Amino acid sequence: MRKKQVSSPGLSAPQKKKIKDFERKTRLVFGKKTVLLGALTHPSYRNEYPQKGLPDFERFEFFGDAVLNFAVSERLFRVFPASNEGELSQIRSVLVSRKTLAKAAKKIPLRKFLFLSGDRQNLRQGMEKILADSFEALIAAVFFDLGIGRAKALILKYLEPYMRLRLLKRTETNPKGLLQEWVQKKYKILPEYRMAFKKNGVTAVVRAGRAGKAAGKGSSKKEAQEKAASALLKLLKSKEKTKGA
Q: Which of 41, 89, 226, 242 is the most exposed place for a label (fewest CB within 10 A)?
């Protein structure tokens, strides 16, 4: 039975148009248009127009992240019956990483339908995070308005192409997770991070006990930590090869 469309008299003309275009593109027709609006309205836009009382994007993102992890975990459990808990966790970390979610968002293409503040309209640096967060928010909107079945279908439609075991095992899109797994296995400890925040960016230094340390710089804490983790992982693997030679 086709879902009955509900009018949204409280929405502005630009909002109605963007929502209508989104629904036509994705074939996801929402009963409550304000729910979809919440997923498409980035906090930067909401902060720029506080008087409009726009939906809370962060709440959608929070819930969408939980639905995403559940759906991906369930799918991996069925697709890779021979994989152990560690392998499944590693594969999941790749699939729910910022980089993969941003790729999924680009396929929609989600950026075209987002409400962003003026200074973020033509933003390049940081757009990956915006797209990844928006994809999670969209998952929540679909869940609340169309149900868990449609939410899972959305997730699998855009993430299932990446569910190839050999490819995932070679992909290091989650250097922090890979570093932690390596350090725990080799040294029975956890890597430790120290941060330095400056006007020109963030610097992270990660140490694996006495085995080694490395630094990384970025525009955000996450980016700096990922670069530091990647550098230390490369260093530790290089030492291991030299030791075994």
A: 242
